Amino acid sequence: MFKVNVYVVLLFAVSILFSCKKNENVDANKETILKGKAEIYVDETIVPIMEDETMVFESQYDAKFTLISKSESEVLNSLFNRKAKIVVIARNLTKKELNIFEQIKIVPKITKFAIDGIAFVSNKSSNDTLIALNDVIDFMKGERSSKIKGLVFDNPNSSTVSYMNNLTGLNVLAGKGVYTFKTNNEVLKFVSENDGMIGVVGVNWLSQPKDSMNSIISNINVLSVKGLNKDGYYAPSQNNFAEGTYPLLRDLYIVNCQGATGLGMGIASFVAGDIGQRIVLKSGLLPYQMPTRKLNIIHSRSNSEKK
């Protein structure tokens, strides 16, 4: 009887030990705002800035992000079908899109963190570095132009196409001389090799090009744009973003639908915080909130005071 009781106690102790170890492993793998693994679906036109943000975040915390680059349409579809829980897009969600989440009892946490823009680029051989937005819109509607031989977009489902379609009132790209590729890099390469073609890309790909793209970037002009019913031509520069003079601006957002305290909340807070906003500033885009600058004032003593 005594031996049986000993075996029972030992068995009970071992089961508790394994249970504790199991709980420890669960806790160790549990995702928090600063720890764990997460996927982020990113609009292809703004991948460079998110690569910088996640790289710095990972260097400071025990976290690992996998960035999945997709067109705007693909990113949003992944969000709506719950395949993606954290996304980065170049516009806010519409009322209709928010209603989709309301129906499934999810409240997205939306964080605005930067101002980007749409840029027009041309071959370096062209001496004309100015373009009127009216001319681009007319060309997209089928009107011929002596200045524009063709317009080249990254992807028929991209945020740049969506942005320009909204300006023109079009639902699809159907104009003669309007072409689409798959990525911003393909657009830049094509324009660098073909005179008279105007490429439409996200500014982020110009402000932070890959090393492999430097030779291509050196063979294109970034055009200054005249807005609708506006005077003056403005380049897509940080200063013109801040003053609101560049006519093709757009806001960048992180949409977190994790529904729990996880890395979605962590990266959103980080990107919108001081360090994240400094990364945006360094990237050439405009931070949503300008980072504070601390000044150290050193009072020097005069010779009379030293005596």
Automatic annotation (TrEMBL):
| Tagged with keyword Signal | yes
Q: Which residues form a coiled coil?
A: none
Q: Tell me which UniProt keywords the record has, alphabetically.
A: Signal
Q: Output the superkingdom of the source species.
A: Bacteria
Q: Where is the PBP domain?
A: 40-273
Q: Which PROSITE patterns match?
A: PROKAR_LIPOPROTEIN
Name the Pfam families for this protein: PBP_like_2
InterPro entries registered for this protein in UniProt:
PBP_domain, Phosphate_ABC_transporter
What is the protein name stated in its UniProt record?
Phosphate ABC transporter substrate-binding protein
Organism annotation = Flavobacterium aquariorum
* Lineage of producing organism: Bacteria, Pseudomonadati, Bacteroidota, Flavobacteriia, Flavobacteriales
